[in-house]
Amino acid sequence: MRLLRAVAIFALWFLAISATVGAVPMLTQPQGEPWQMPQSLLAHSPFHSFLVPGLLLLVSNGLVSVYVLFLAFRRTRGYALWIAAQGCILLGWLIVECILIRLVIWPHYMYGAVALVLIASGLGLNRASGREFRAVA
Predict the structure, then answer these.
(1) Cβ pair 55, 27 in contact under 8 A
(2) Domain assignment of residue 136, yes or no
(3) Is there a domain that residue 95 lies in?
(4) Looking at the 3D structure of the chain, how many domains does it have?
(5) Which residues span the domain enclosing 39?
């Protein structure tokens, strides 16, 4: 359980830092080419600049990861499900991003692996704590 928690904390830390660092240029240069990403990537999306995607990235994968990291450090009740939920948020982000930009590149695979690690470790921690998630019928 210690190893699982350590892996989850590392993945959350990595995601929080990289999402925040990735969002900042999108917010400061929304009409430009942040991270050398051309505006043409947004051609098939509802966005005309990188401002809204940058805000969404910052909040959903940056700030929420920091919050979940805080819960994990404090071992707040239910933190394991928050970890799994953050993995689902990241995976959802990746799927929508790939559909909207119509492109899949190596970082998508890497962050997809991070998402799966978060989901698996969160569910594993939840199960180990004896609080299995049960769907209400």
Answers:
(1) yes
(2) no
(3) yes
(4) 1
(5) 2-128
In the chain, the largest separation of any two C-alpha atoms, in whole Å, equals: 50
List the structure tokens of 25: 């240029």
pLDDT digits (tens, 9 = 90+) for 83-120: 999 999 999 999 999 999 999 999 999 999 999 999 99
| Number of helical (H) and strand (E) elements in the chain, helices listed first | 5, 0
> Model confidence over 32-64: pLDDT tens digits?
888 889 999 999 999 999 999 999 999 999 999
Residue 136 pLDDT: 52
Cα dihedral across residues 32, 34, 38, 44: positive or negative: negative
d(CA 39, CA 79) in angstroms, rounded, equals: 38
**Average pLDDT in the chain:** 94
Whether residue 88 contacts residue 123, with contact meaning beta carbons closer than 8 Å, is answered with no
At 98, list the tokens.
């790939």
Domain annotation covers residue 117: yes
137 in a structural domain: no
pTM, two decimal places: 0.91
Alpha helices for 29-132 (secondary structure H): 51-57, 64-74, 79-101, 106-128
